[in-house]
Fold:
Amino acid sequence: QLQLVESGRGLVQPGGSLRLSCVASGSVLDDYTIGWFRQAPGKEREGVSCISRRAVTEYYTDSIKARFTISRDNAKNTLYLEINSLEPEDTAVYFCVADKRPWCSSSPGAFVYWGQGTQVTVSS
Structure:
């Protein structure tokens, strides 16, 4: 059974940077399509970024594409999300997700495995 544990939560000033990590256990992360979702207060969960089993990377908005970088370290069985030029609108709980599906999806229902989430707050 795959388990995902996020870390890297924090309070960051606007314009700052942060790197989130997601350590997988119980299975090899390379066998999964993996990604990040986020949920801001009072809003629905939204897809942030994803790496498919076919090694295709996706970012789900132009703003995210310009400032976020998703990467994977197979040796450490870890997924990362680096966020630059943070904006108050990036304040949310960020979730690491995984699924055996071959391709990415921006739908939360497409992913079976979820981490517990890590809080990112952008405020001066």
Summary: The longest helix spans residues 62-67. The chain has a mean pLDDT of 94.
